[in-house]
Amino acid sequence: MRIAIKKTKVFKYEELPDDVKDTVVEKLYDINVDYEWYEGTIDWFREECERKYGITFDKAYFDLDRDNYLYFDTTDVIDSKKLLKALKKCWDIPEYHYRKIRENIDQIRFIIDRTLFAGARGRNNGQIEDYSDPNNRGKYISDYLEIHGNFENWVYDLTQEFKLILKKDYEELTTRDMIEETIEMNDYEFTEEGELYI
Hints:
By secondary structure, the protein is α+β, with helices and mostly antiparallel strands. The protein has helices at 18-27, 39-53, 80-91, 95-103, 143-146, 151-173, 176-185, and strands at 11-12, 55-56, 59-63, 69-73, 76-77, 108-112, 115-117, 126-130, 189-190, 196-197.
């Protein structure tokens, strides 16, 4: 038996020719997104929803390769007054109607599906249940709200906003600059052909 030792030339990324650098970047296109890169974004979005809208959720699932595939697990409205305030600003609800709804907020209930699928409008993702009695004009408390906007569409738009944020983060992490930054930060070395040397 004999032991043969093979010598391999290895190079720092900056030492590689430009065409080999292109190969490296192409092979390592997913180096920044092959783990749970999205967890920080999901946590941030949850905190924003709680702070701005009084809405929270447990987990979020998505697939950027499938159009509109995004849903939230165990979604809940934890502060109806905060949500109402956000809708007032978004829909430009007159002060009289806003005050009327706010004073009777305990008679309506904002509902967001437990598994909220952000596929398309019209999936009943957001609903308003009304337990109030009609006034002498036959109006319920929720009528003062729904004449100014559609809650289901508002929920859909919110989920699409999050999808765009995720897509933007993904695209940024897969740019050449970010890939090269990760390579340099980890002090990776490569063969002449551009293979990662481990």
